[in-house]
């Protein structure tokens, strides 16, 4: 039986990026997905310094040189931020030359560890019945939802720029004009340009277990925008977001969220998957011990976010976004520098009020279930 070099389960951004780069390196590739030709609709963004050199410039719809975080005050961030043109990003990850199978993977079988005879290859079993072996099998199907997992949720609308007179791009806007009680779980406004003519305005629950539901976020967004003089017509395109923030496991046979590449305290994963695709294809370890240590520290950060009382979240981010840019980058983007990540977290801890420090200290040593934040 002729087998491909690489078989990828899942055709989302991580799986498609991996397949695209494998083809660029001359490998034979099969991609299995229930709907491999589905067009992507979510908004993806990243810090510009996270992107690989091979990414085409036309995949970037907008670049913001100094995005703004509004915590207890307005803070400009000295780090360029990019918003992808989602259709262009998908099209740039060309899969011409790959075999695309519209099917569902129901089982992945790894090679037997102690087999002494014959060719032992990993394989998958499809819902339609066939079993397909390959030189390597990579699971890039994401993480299924579970009540045990913290989630990020958001509800957004897309409006013409002329209807959004604010010149700032808000990475996070924690101001309390969304109608929520101060002691209710918090949400923030994410306001970014999609292109020269449109802006995405999105009410976001950063992390919750359970997370805020989309109806609550929609109502908060409408209230927030009305308070700023913007009345929606109900005909605006909408965006709905809900995904687990963790759950994947660091593994050489998993990629994207399934392989724990999502930042558990922010929900960002696309740029990391794009930048690590070549390394995984080359057989380089993408989970050396330093990266595993950083991952553990980031999960501690998620536990901290889930534990903080709602009124303290703006104080937390006020302290974070006043750290030096290098410290912010260490926590948000660096995967292989546990010292830098730990130093950033220590500096943040020292800058916080005592009551917030006490809540964070408790979170760092606890793995219990916490409420929405």
Outline the fold blueprint.
Layout: E1 4-9, H1 13-24, E2 29-33, E3 45-47, E4 60-64, E5 68-70, E6 74-76, E7 81-84, H2 86-92, E8 99-102, E9 105-109, E10 123-126, E11 131-139, E12 151-160, E13 170-173, E14 188-193, E15 198-208, H3 214-227, E16 238-244, H4 270-282, H5 289-307, H6 313-320, H7 325-332, H8 338-351, H9 354-364
Parallel strand pairs: 1-2, 1-11, 2-8, 5-13
Antiparallel strand pairs: 3-7, 4-7, 5-6, 9-10, 10-11, 12-15, 12-16, 13-14, 14-15
Helix pairs in contact: 1-4, 5-8, 5-9, 7-8
Tell me briefly what this model is.
The protein has 373 residues and is α+β, with helices and mostly antiparallel strands. The chain has helices spanning 13-24, 86-92, 214-227, 270-282, 289-307, 313-320, 325-332, 338-351, 354-364, and strands spanning 4-9, 29-33, 45-47, 60-64, 68-70, 74-76, 81-84, 99-102, 105-109, 123-126, 131-139, 151-160, 170-173, 188-193, 198-208, 238-244. The strands form three sheets. It has a seven-stranded mixed β-sheet with strand order 6-5-13-14-15-12-16, sandwiched between helices. Strands 8-2-1-11-10-9 form a six-stranded mixed β-sheet, covered by helices on one side.
């Amino acid at each position: 039986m002729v087998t491909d070099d690489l078989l990828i389960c899942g055709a989302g951004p991580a799986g498609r990026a991996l397949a695209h780069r494998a083809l660029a390196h001359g490998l034979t590739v099969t991609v299995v997905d229930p709907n491999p030709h589905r067009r992507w609709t979510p908004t993806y963004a990243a810090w510009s310094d996270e992107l690989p050199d091979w990414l085409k410039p036309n995949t970037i719809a907008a670049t913001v040189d100094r995005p703004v975080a509004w915590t207890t005050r307005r803070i400009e961030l000295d780090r360029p931020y990019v918003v992808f043109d989602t259709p262009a990003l998908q099209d740039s990850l060309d899969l011409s030359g790959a075999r695309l199978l519209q099917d569902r993977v129901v089982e992945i079988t790894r090679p037997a560890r102690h087999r002494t005879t014959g060719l032992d290859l990993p394989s998958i079993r499809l819902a339609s019945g066939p079993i397909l072996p390959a030189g390597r099998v990579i699971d890039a199907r994401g993480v299924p939802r579970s009540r045990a997992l913290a989630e990020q949720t958001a509800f957004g609308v897309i409006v013409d720029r002329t209807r959004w007179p604010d010149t700032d791009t808000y990475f996070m806007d924690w101001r309390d004009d969304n109608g929520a009680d101060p002691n209710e779980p918090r949400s923030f406004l994410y306001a970014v340009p999609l292109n020269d003519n449109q802006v995405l305005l999105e009410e976001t629950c950063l992390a919750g277990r359970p997370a805020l539901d989309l109806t609550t976020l929609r109502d908060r967004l409408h209230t927030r925008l009305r308070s700023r003089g913007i009345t929606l017509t109900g005909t605006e395109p909408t965006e709905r977001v809900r995904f687990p923030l963790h759950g994947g496991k660091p593994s050489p046979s998993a990629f994207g969220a399934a392989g724990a590449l999502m930042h558990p305290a922010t929900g960002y994963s696309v740029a990391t998957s794009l930048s690590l695709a070549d390394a995984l294809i080359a057989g380089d370890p993408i989970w050396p011990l330093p990266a595993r240590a950083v991952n553990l520290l980031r999960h501690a950060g998620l536990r901290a976010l889930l534990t903080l009382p709602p009124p303290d979240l703006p104080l937390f981010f006020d302290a974070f976004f006043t750290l030096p840019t290098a410290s912010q980058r260490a926590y948000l983007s660096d995967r292989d520098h546990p010292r830098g990540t730990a130093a950033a977290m220590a500096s943040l801890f020292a800058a916080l009020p005592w009551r917030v420090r006490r809540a964070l200290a408790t979170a760092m040593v606890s793995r219990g279930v916490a409420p929405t934040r």
